[in-house]
Specification:
The chain has a domain of 78 residues. It contains two helices and two strands, in the order αββα.
């Protein structure tokens, strides 16, 4: 039962990511208001350069706050995890030690290249 719930959760996250990716990729557009450019994306019908809809100042403020909230939550989620789980890409750093090979004491170097 636990594995089934885990699979359903993974599928829901995949669908959520696919929806977000398609919305960001397929529907970006620009609004020009008072000489400022506002770029955002959401499903709509119309050209990207000159959208046929408009937003109020409160809607633009809501878009900015939601973007900030999502980034803050993502950063907090990455920092709250336990340090041993925070491997990200390469995993924890462990210095290499070779106890089977003695250290050389004489400074040898390769011949110069011509």
């Amino acid at each position: 039962m636990r594995k089934r719930l885990k699979n359903i959760g993974a599928l829901l996250l995949l669908v959520l990511f696919a929806g977000y990716w398609s919305c960001v990729t397929l529907f970006p557009h620009v609004h020009r208001i008072d000489g400022l450019l506002y770029v955002h994306s959401h499903p709509y019908s119309g050209p990207a350069g000159n959208p046929t809809h408009s937003h109020s100042a409160q809607q633009f403020q809501l878009i900015a706050h939601l973007s900030l909230l999502v980034m803050a939550l993502a950063t907090l989620a990455a920092l709250v995890r336990r340090p041993e789980e925070r491997t990200f890409l390469f995993g924890p750093f462990r210095p290499a030690r070779r106890s089977f090979a003695p250290m050389r004491s004489c400074p040898l170097r390769a011949p110069p290249c011509l």
